[in-house]
Amino acid sequence: MVDRAETPLNRRRFLSAAGLAGAGLATGALPSRAAEPDAAITDVQDWNRYLGEGVQAHPYGSPSKYEKNVVRRDVEWLTASRESSVNFTPLHALDGNVTPSGLAFERHHGGIADIDPAKHRLMIHGLVDKPLVFTMDDLKRFPGRVHKLYFLECAANSGMEWRGAQLNGCQFTHGMIHNVWYTGVSLRSLLEQAGVKTNAKWLLAEGGDASMMTRSIPLQKALDDCIIAWGMNGEALRPEQGYPVRLVVPGWEGNMWIKWLRRLELGDEPWQAREETSKYTDLLADGRSRRFTYIMDAKSVVTNPSPQAPLLHKGPNVLSGIAWSGRGRIERVDVSLDGGRNWRTARLEGPVLSRSMTRFYVDFDWDGRELLVQSRAMDETGYVQPTKNELRAVRGVNSIYHNNGVQTWFVHKNGETENVEIS
Ligand code: MTE
Ligand code: CO
Questions:
Q1: Distance separating the N- and C-terminal Cα atoms of the chain
Q2: Which is the closest atom of ligand 1 to the Cα of 109?
Q3: Which one of 25, 55, 142, 248 counts the least CB within 10 Å of its CB?
Q4: How many whole angstroms from 402 Cα to the centroid of ligand 2?
Protein backbone atom coordinates (compact mmCIF):
# COMPACT_ATOMS: atom_id res chain seq x y z
CA MET A 1 0.00 0.00 0.00
CA VAL A 2 1.23 3.46 -0.83
CA ASP A 3 0.71 5.92 1.96
CA ARG A 4 1.67 9.39 0.90
CA ALA A 5 -0.33 11.67 3.13
CA GLU A 6 1.53 11.69 6.45
CA THR A 7 -0.33 14.89 7.31
CA PRO A 8 -3.44 16.00 5.48
CA LEU A 9 -3.31 19.17 3.46
CA ASN A 10 -5.79 21.98 3.49
CA ARG A 11 -7.37 22.49 0.14
CA ARG A 12 -10.43 23.88 -1.46
CA ARG A 13 -10.49 22.87 -5.06
CA PHE A 14 -13.39 22.87 -7.45
CA LEU A 15 -13.26 21.23 -10.85
CA SER A 16 -15.67 21.01 -13.72
CA ALA A 17 -16.57 17.64 -15.14
CA ALA A 18 -16.32 18.93 -18.72
CA GLY A 19 -13.70 17.38 -20.95
CA LEU A 20 -13.18 14.21 -18.98
CA ALA A 21 -13.59 10.95 -20.79
CA GLY A 22 -14.51 7.82 -18.86
CA ALA A 23 -12.23 4.83 -18.58
CA GLY A 24 -13.37 1.50 -19.94
CA LEU A 25 -14.52 -1.61 -18.20
CA ALA A 26 -11.66 -4.05 -17.78
CA THR A 27 -11.05 -5.77 -21.11
CA GLY A 28 -7.27 -5.62 -21.65
CA ALA A 29 -4.43 -7.93 -20.70
CA LEU A 30 -4.41 -9.04 -17.09
CA PRO A 31 -1.67 -7.80 -14.77
CA SER A 32 0.89 -10.58 -15.05
CA ARG A 33 4.38 -10.63 -16.58
CA ALA A 34 6.36 -13.03 -18.74
CA ALA A 35 8.77 -15.25 -16.78
CA GLU A 36 12.21 -13.69 -17.22
CA PRO A 37 15.36 -13.85 -15.09
CA ASP A 38 14.60 -11.91 -11.92
CA ALA A 39 16.85 -11.64 -8.87
CA ALA A 40 13.78 -11.83 -6.67
CA ILE A 41 13.40 -15.41 -7.91
CA THR A 42 16.93 -16.57 -8.75
CA ASP A 43 18.77 -15.25 -5.65
CA VAL A 44 18.43 -16.99 -2.32
CA GLN A 45 16.92 -14.48 0.10
CA ASP A 46 17.75 -14.15 3.80
CA TRP A 47 14.31 -15.45 4.74
CA ASN A 48 15.19 -18.66 2.88
CA ARG A 49 18.57 -18.97 4.50
CA TYR A 50 17.89 -18.46 8.21
CA LEU A 51 15.36 -19.77 10.66
CA GLY A 52 12.65 -17.36 11.61
CA GLU A 53 11.49 -16.44 15.10
CA GLY A 54 9.96 -19.29 17.09
CA VAL A 55 6.53 -19.54 18.61
CA GLN A 56 5.87 -17.28 21.60
CA ALA A 57 8.05 -14.54 20.09
CA HIS A 58 4.80 -12.53 20.03
CA PRO A 59 2.26 -13.86 22.58
CA TYR A 60 -0.15 -11.25 21.26
CA GLY A 61 0.46 -10.84 17.54
CA SER A 62 0.81 -7.61 15.61
CA PRO A 63 1.05 -6.79 11.87
CA SER A 64 4.19 -7.20 9.76
CA LYS A 65 6.75 -4.41 10.19
CA TYR A 66 6.27 -3.71 6.47
CA GLU A 67 2.75 -2.54 7.26
CA LYS A 68 3.93 0.15 9.68
CA ASN A 69 2.18 2.92 7.74
CA VAL A 70 -1.21 1.33 8.23
CA VAL A 71 -2.12 3.20 11.40
CA ARG A 72 -4.77 5.46 12.84
CA ARG A 73 -3.84 9.11 12.35
CA ASP A 74 -5.06 12.32 13.90
CA VAL A 75 -5.18 15.87 12.54
CA GLU A 76 -3.20 18.02 14.95
CA TRP A 77 -4.96 21.34 14.34
CA LEU A 78 -8.42 19.85 14.67
CA THR A 79 -8.70 19.66 18.46
CA ALA A 80 -7.10 21.53 21.36
CA SER A 81 -6.15 18.50 23.44
CA ARG A 82 -5.43 14.82 22.98
CA GLU A 83 -7.89 13.84 25.72
CA SER A 84 -10.81 15.37 23.86
CA SER A 85 -9.93 14.43 20.33
CA VAL A 86 -10.28 11.95 17.51
CA ASN A 87 -8.14 9.83 15.24
CA PHE A 88 -9.15 8.21 11.99
CA THR A 89 -9.44 4.69 10.58
CA PRO A 90 -7.00 4.15 7.64
CA LEU A 91 -9.78 3.20 5.24
CA HIS A 92 -7.51 3.46 2.17
CA ALA A 93 -5.36 0.60 3.49
CA LEU A 94 -8.15 -1.79 4.49
CA ASP A 95 -10.34 -4.21 2.61
CA GLY A 96 -13.40 -6.33 3.32
CA ASN A 97 -15.95 -5.12 5.80
CA VAL A 98 -14.51 -5.76 9.27
CA THR A 99 -12.34 -3.07 10.84
CA PRO A 100 -9.35 -4.59 12.68
CA SER A 101 -9.65 -3.67 16.37
CA GLY A 102 -6.32 -1.85 16.52
CA LEU A 103 -7.31 0.39 13.60
CA ALA A 104 -10.83 1.35 14.71
CA PHE A 105 -10.98 5.15 15.03
CA GLU A 106 -11.22 6.54 18.56
CA ARG A 107 -13.26 9.49 19.67
CA HIS A 108 -13.33 10.46 23.31
CA HIS A 109 -14.00 13.59 25.29
CA GLY A 110 -12.12 12.91 28.53
CA GLY A 111 -9.37 10.44 27.64
CA ILE A 112 -9.48 6.64 27.79
CA ALA A 113 -10.91 5.53 31.13
CA ASP A 114 -8.78 2.84 32.82
CA ILE A 115 -11.49 0.69 34.43
CA ASP A 116 -10.90 -2.45 36.50
CA PRO A 117 -13.69 -4.76 35.27
CA ALA A 118 -13.97 -6.36 38.71
CA LYS A 119 -14.91 -2.96 40.13
CA HIS A 120 -17.20 -1.91 37.30
CA ARG A 121 -20.97 -1.80 37.81
CA LEU A 122 -23.86 -1.08 35.48
CA MET A 123 -26.92 0.38 37.21
CA ILE A 124 -30.48 0.56 35.86
CA HIS A 125 -32.85 2.86 37.73
CA GLY A 126 -35.48 5.58 37.34
CA LEU A 127 -38.92 4.61 36.05
CA VAL A 128 -38.48 0.87 36.66
CA ASP A 129 -40.20 -1.55 39.02
CA LYS A 130 -36.92 -2.81 40.46
CA PRO A 131 -33.64 -0.84 40.23
CA LEU A 132 -30.80 -3.25 39.37
CA VAL A 133 -27.02 -3.34 39.45
CA PHE A 134 -24.97 -5.70 37.27
CA THR A 135 -21.35 -6.75 37.60
CA MET A 136 -19.47 -7.75 34.44
CA ASP A 137 -19.86 -11.40 35.49
CA ASP A 138 -23.62 -10.92 35.85
CA LEU A 139 -23.81 -9.53 32.32
CA LYS A 140 -21.79 -12.38 30.86
CA ARG A 141 -24.08 -14.95 32.51
CA PHE A 142 -27.24 -13.27 31.32
CA PRO A 143 -29.26 -15.49 28.95
CA GLY A 144 -29.81 -14.53 25.32
CA ARG A 145 -26.31 -13.47 24.26
CA VAL A 146 -26.12 -11.71 20.88
CA HIS A 147 -23.33 -11.33 18.30
CA LYS A 148 -23.73 -8.67 15.57
CA LEU A 149 -21.72 -6.74 12.99
CA TYR A 150 -22.56 -3.02 12.90
CA PHE A 151 -20.98 0.20 11.69
CA LEU A 152 -20.42 3.07 14.10
CA GLU A 153 -20.10 6.45 12.38
CA CYS A 154 -19.43 9.66 14.30
CA ALA A 155 -22.00 12.31 13.34
CA ALA A 156 -19.02 14.60 12.64
CA ASN A 157 -17.55 12.29 9.98
CA SER A 158 -16.92 14.43 6.84
CA GLY A 159 -17.88 17.43 8.99
CA MET A 160 -14.86 19.44 7.83
CA GLU A 161 -16.04 19.25 4.21
CA TRP A 162 -19.24 21.32 4.43
CA ARG A 163 -17.76 24.38 2.73
CA GLY A 164 -15.64 22.55 0.18
CA ALA A 165 -12.91 19.95 -0.19
CA GLN A 166 -10.56 20.15 2.81
CA LEU A 167 -8.66 17.06 3.84
CA ASN A 168 -6.60 15.01 1.47
CA GLY A 169 -7.40 11.38 2.12
CA CYS A 170 -10.41 9.19 2.81
CA GLN A 171 -8.81 8.38 6.16
CA PHE A 172 -9.45 12.00 7.15
CA THR A 173 -12.63 12.76 5.19
CA HIS A 174 -14.42 9.49 6.03
CA GLY A 175 -12.35 7.69 8.68
CA MET A 176 -14.63 8.34 11.68
CA ILE A 177 -16.25 5.00 11.04
CA HIS A 178 -15.59 1.42 12.05
CA ASN A 179 -17.44 -1.83 11.52
CA VAL A 180 -16.82 -4.51 14.14
CA TRP A 181 -18.49 -7.55 15.65
CA TYR A 182 -20.12 -6.96 19.02
CA THR A 183 -20.83 -9.56 21.68
CA GLY A 184 -23.22 -8.76 24.48
CA VAL A 185 -26.80 -8.94 25.70
CA SER A 186 -29.77 -7.10 24.33
CA LEU A 187 -30.62 -4.00 26.33
CA ARG A 188 -34.23 -5.14 26.10
CA SER A 189 -33.58 -8.23 28.21
CA LEU A 190 -31.99 -6.17 31.00
CA LEU A 191 -34.85 -3.65 30.90
CA GLU A 192 -37.40 -6.45 31.08
CA GLN A 193 -35.63 -7.79 34.14
CA ALA A 194 -35.89 -4.36 35.80
CA GLY A 195 -39.50 -3.90 34.67
CA VAL A 196 -40.12 -0.71 32.68
CA LYS A 197 -42.90 1.48 34.09
CA THR A 198 -45.64 2.43 31.63
CA ASN A 199 -44.82 6.16 31.79
CA ALA A 200 -41.16 5.60 30.83
CA LYS A 201 -40.43 7.01 27.35
CA TRP A 202 -36.72 7.78 27.39
CA LEU A 203 -33.51 6.30 28.66
CA LEU A 204 -30.37 8.16 29.75
CA ALA A 205 -27.06 6.39 29.15
CA GLU A 206 -24.05 7.61 31.13
CA GLY A 207 -20.35 6.83 30.70
CA GLY A 208 -17.92 6.15 33.53
CA ASP A 209 -15.07 8.15 31.93
CA ALA A 210 -13.91 11.61 33.03
CA SER A 211 -16.28 13.25 30.51
CA MET A 212 -19.21 11.33 32.03
CA MET A 213 -20.91 11.55 28.67
CA THR A 214 -24.69 11.32 28.74
CA ARG A 215 -27.22 10.90 25.94
CA SER A 216 -31.02 10.49 25.96
CA ILE A 217 -32.27 7.57 23.87
CA PRO A 218 -35.93 7.00 22.95
CA LEU A 219 -37.17 3.94 24.85
CA GLN A 220 -38.48 2.38 21.65
CA LYS A 221 -34.95 2.27 20.18
CA ALA A 222 -33.57 0.86 23.44
CA LEU A 223 -36.13 -1.97 23.26
CA ASP A 224 -35.67 -2.55 19.51
CA ASP A 225 -32.06 -3.47 18.96
CA CYS A 226 -29.58 -1.82 21.36
CA ILE A 227 -26.85 -4.03 22.82
CA ILE A 228 -24.87 -3.88 26.04
CA ALA A 229 -21.58 -5.09 24.55
CA TRP A 230 -18.37 -6.30 26.17
CA GLY A 231 -16.91 -8.08 23.13
CA MET A 232 -15.40 -6.67 19.93
CA ASN A 233 -14.24 -8.82 17.03
CA GLY A 234 -14.28 -11.93 19.23
CA GLU A 235 -12.23 -10.58 22.15
CA ALA A 236 -12.77 -8.04 24.90
CA LEU A 237 -13.57 -4.47 23.89
CA ARG A 238 -10.44 -2.38 23.47
CA PRO A 239 -9.94 0.30 26.17
CA GLU A 240 -10.37 2.97 23.48
CA GLN A 241 -13.75 1.50 22.54
CA GLY A 242 -15.16 1.53 26.08
CA TYR A 243 -13.71 -1.45 28.00
CA PRO A 244 -15.28 -3.16 29.83
CA VAL A 245 -18.73 -2.36 28.40
CA ARG A 246 -20.36 0.00 25.90
CA LEU A 247 -23.76 0.72 24.45
CA VAL A 248 -24.39 -0.27 20.81
CA VAL A 249 -27.10 1.76 19.04
CA PRO A 250 -27.29 0.25 15.52
CA GLY A 251 -27.53 2.74 12.64
CA TRP A 252 -27.60 5.79 14.93
CA GLU A 253 -24.97 8.49 15.37
CA GLY A 254 -21.78 7.35 17.14
CA ASN A 255 -22.11 9.84 19.98
CA MET A 256 -25.03 7.85 21.40
CA TRP A 257 -22.93 4.68 21.69
CA ILE A 258 -21.86 5.50 25.26
CA LYS A 259 -18.54 3.89 26.19
CA TRP A 260 -17.45 2.77 29.67
CA LEU A 261 -21.21 2.49 30.32
CA ARG A 262 -22.14 2.65 33.99
CA ARG A 263 -25.70 3.96 34.32
CA LEU A 264 -29.04 3.70 32.54
CA GLU A 265 -31.89 5.81 33.88
CA LEU A 266 -35.44 5.61 32.61
CA GLY A 267 -37.51 8.78 32.41
CA ASP A 268 -40.49 10.33 30.68
CA GLU A 269 -38.67 13.02 28.67
CA PRO A 270 -35.21 13.66 27.20
CA TRP A 271 -32.59 15.07 29.57
CA GLN A 272 -31.34 17.83 27.18
CA ALA A 273 -27.72 16.94 27.92
CA ARG A 274 -24.88 18.97 26.45
CA GLU A 275 -24.24 16.40 23.72
CA GLU A 276 -27.82 16.66 22.44
CA THR A 277 -28.29 20.43 22.60
CA SER A 278 -25.17 22.55 22.07
CA LYS A 279 -23.53 19.60 20.25
CA TYR A 280 -24.87 17.08 17.76
CA THR A 281 -27.67 19.31 16.54
CA ASP A 282 -27.65 20.49 12.92
CA LEU A 283 -27.43 24.24 12.33
CA LEU A 284 -29.54 25.05 9.27
CA ALA A 285 -29.10 27.82 6.67
CA ASP A 286 -31.66 30.09 8.39
CA GLY A 287 -29.91 29.90 11.76
CA ARG A 288 -32.34 27.49 13.36
CA SER A 289 -31.09 24.19 14.73
CA ARG A 290 -32.48 20.78 13.97
CA ARG A 291 -32.13 18.52 17.00
CA PHE A 292 -32.18 14.77 17.41
CA THR A 293 -30.94 13.61 14.03
CA TYR A 294 -30.27 10.10 15.15
CA ILE A 295 -30.10 7.96 12.02
CA MET A 296 -26.95 7.99 9.89
CA ASP A 297 -28.24 8.09 6.32
CA ALA A 298 -26.79 6.08 3.43
CA LYS A 299 -23.27 7.06 2.46
CA SER A 300 -20.32 5.64 0.55
CA VAL A 301 -16.75 6.46 -0.42
CA VAL A 302 -14.22 5.06 -2.86
CA THR A 303 -11.22 4.04 -0.76
CA ASN A 304 -9.02 3.01 -3.71
CA PRO A 305 -8.04 5.08 -5.59
CA SER A 306 -7.95 7.97 -3.12
CA PRO A 307 -5.33 10.58 -2.17
CA GLN A 308 -3.37 8.21 0.10
CA ALA A 309 -3.73 5.35 -2.40
CA PRO A 310 -3.08 6.80 -5.88
CA LEU A 311 -3.24 4.83 -9.15
CA LEU A 312 0.19 3.35 -9.86
CA HIS A 313 -0.40 1.44 -13.09
CA LYS A 314 -2.17 1.89 -16.39
CA GLY A 315 -4.32 -1.00 -17.57
CA PRO A 316 -6.33 -3.19 -15.21
CA ASN A 317 -7.10 -1.71 -11.80
CA VAL A 318 -9.51 -2.62 -9.02
CA LEU A 319 -11.59 0.25 -7.73
CA SER A 320 -12.83 -0.44 -4.21
CA GLY A 321 -14.94 1.26 -1.61
CA ILE A 322 -17.40 1.01 1.26
CA ALA A 323 -21.07 1.87 1.68
CA TRP A 324 -23.38 1.86 4.69
CA SER A 325 -26.82 2.98 5.81
CA GLY A 326 -28.37 3.49 9.24
CA ARG A 327 -31.75 2.51 7.77
CA GLY A 328 -30.94 -1.03 6.71
CA ARG A 329 -29.06 -2.94 4.02
CA ILE A 330 -27.19 -1.40 1.11
CA GLU A 331 -29.14 -2.20 -2.02
CA ARG A 332 -26.82 -0.86 -4.71
CA VAL A 333 -23.72 1.27 -5.23
CA ASP A 334 -23.09 3.13 -8.49
CA VAL A 335 -19.65 4.41 -9.44
CA SER A 336 -18.71 7.19 -11.86
CA LEU A 337 -15.26 7.87 -13.29
CA ASP A 338 -16.26 11.09 -15.07
CA GLY A 339 -17.73 13.23 -12.31
CA GLY A 340 -21.26 11.87 -12.40
CA ARG A 341 -22.01 11.86 -16.15
CA ASN A 342 -21.90 8.09 -16.57
CA TRP A 343 -22.53 5.54 -13.84
CA ARG A 344 -21.94 1.83 -13.59
CA THR A 345 -23.19 -0.47 -10.86
CA ALA A 346 -20.51 -1.83 -8.55
CA ARG A 347 -20.26 -5.44 -7.39
CA LEU A 348 -21.15 -5.89 -3.70
CA GLU A 349 -18.86 -8.46 -2.13
CA GLY A 350 -19.04 -10.25 1.21
CA PRO A 351 -22.02 -10.18 3.55
CA VAL A 352 -24.51 -7.36 2.93
CA LEU A 353 -25.97 -6.87 6.40
CA SER A 354 -28.36 -4.33 7.84
CA ARG A 355 -26.60 -1.26 9.28
CA SER A 356 -23.22 -2.77 8.51
CA MET A 357 -20.44 -1.64 6.20
CA THR A 358 -20.65 -3.18 2.72
CA ARG A 359 -17.65 -3.59 0.40
CA PHE A 360 -17.91 -2.85 -3.32
CA TYR A 361 -15.59 -3.35 -6.30
CA VAL A 362 -15.38 -2.22 -9.94
CA ASP A 363 -12.73 -3.68 -12.25
CA PHE A 364 -11.63 -1.07 -14.79
CA ASP A 365 -8.92 -0.30 -17.34
CA TRP A 366 -7.11 2.99 -16.81
CA ASP A 367 -5.63 4.53 -19.95
CA GLY A 368 -3.83 7.32 -18.11
CA ARG A 369 -6.55 9.92 -18.54
CA GLU A 370 -7.78 12.19 -15.77
CA LEU A 371 -10.68 10.78 -13.77
CA LEU A 372 -13.28 12.23 -11.42
CA VAL A 373 -14.15 9.24 -9.24
CA GLN A 374 -17.44 9.16 -7.30
CA SER A 375 -19.67 6.58 -5.62
CA ARG A 376 -23.36 6.83 -4.77
CA ALA A 377 -25.10 4.43 -2.40
CA MET A 378 -28.75 3.38 -2.33
CA ASP A 379 -30.24 1.52 0.63
CA GLU A 380 -33.12 -0.95 0.89
CA THR A 381 -35.58 1.85 1.66
CA GLY A 382 -34.82 3.38 -1.77
CA TYR A 383 -32.96 6.34 -0.22
CA VAL A 384 -30.19 7.59 -2.54
CA GLN A 385 -27.05 9.29 -1.24
CA PRO A 386 -27.29 13.01 -2.20
CA THR A 387 -24.64 15.19 -3.85
CA LYS A 388 -22.99 17.75 -1.59
CA ASN A 389 -24.85 20.55 -3.34
CA GLU A 390 -28.19 18.81 -2.85
CA LEU A 391 -27.38 18.60 0.86
CA ARG A 392 -26.33 22.24 1.03
CA ALA A 393 -29.59 23.32 -0.61
CA VAL A 394 -31.40 21.98 2.47
CA ARG A 395 -28.80 22.36 5.20
CA GLY A 396 -26.70 25.40 4.22
CA VAL A 397 -22.97 25.45 5.03
CA ASN A 398 -22.97 26.13 8.77
CA SER A 399 -23.39 22.50 9.67
CA ILE A 400 -20.82 20.09 11.04
CA TYR A 401 -22.75 16.88 11.52
CA HIS A 402 -24.46 14.42 9.20
CA ASN A 403 -22.65 15.16 5.95
CA ASN A 404 -23.34 12.16 3.71
CA GLY A 405 -22.77 13.88 0.36
CA VAL A 406 -21.11 12.18 -2.62
CA GLN A 407 -17.28 12.41 -2.47
CA THR A 408 -15.20 13.22 -5.56
CA TRP A 409 -11.57 12.21 -6.08
CA PHE A 410 -9.60 13.76 -8.98
CA VAL A 411 -7.07 11.35 -10.47
CA HIS A 412 -4.30 13.22 -12.30
CA LYS A 413 -2.58 11.85 -15.41
CA ASN A 414 0.31 10.66 -13.23
CA GLY A 415 -2.09 8.75 -10.99
CA GLU A 416 -1.89 11.13 -8.05
CA THR A 417 -5.29 11.66 -6.55
CA GLU A 418 -6.77 14.59 -4.64
CA ASN A 419 -9.92 15.67 -2.83
CA VAL A 420 -11.99 18.02 -5.01
CA GLU A 421 -15.52 19.18 -5.57
CA ILE A 422 -17.26 19.62 -8.86
CA SER A 423 -18.93 23.01 -9.25
N1 MTE B 1 -18.77 7.60 25.41
C2 MTE B 1 -18.11 8.17 26.44
N3 MTE B 1 -18.32 7.70 27.68
N4 MTE B 1 -17.24 9.19 26.25
C5 MTE B 1 -17.02 9.71 24.99
O6 MTE B 1 -16.23 10.64 24.87
N7 MTE B 1 -17.61 9.62 22.59
C8 MTE B 1 -18.74 9.34 21.68
C9 MTE B 1 -19.16 7.87 21.77
N10 MTE B 1 -19.26 7.44 23.15
C11 MTE B 1 -17.72 9.15 23.88
C12 MTE B 1 -18.59 8.05 24.15
C13 MTE B 1 -18.51 9.65 20.29
S14 MTE B 1 -18.67 11.29 19.82
C15 MTE B 1 -18.32 8.69 19.33
S16 MTE B 1 -18.26 9.07 17.69
C17 MTE B 1 -18.13 7.27 19.70
O18 MTE B 1 -18.20 7.07 21.11
C19 MTE B 1 -16.78 6.81 19.20
O20 MTE B 1 -16.59 5.46 19.47
P21 MTE B 1 -15.16 4.79 19.24
O22 MTE B 1 -14.16 5.52 20.06
O23 MTE B 1 -15.32 3.36 19.52
O24 MTE B 1 -14.81 5.01 17.77
CO1 CO C 1 -18.71 11.25 17.60
A1: 31
A2: 6
A3: 55
A4: 11
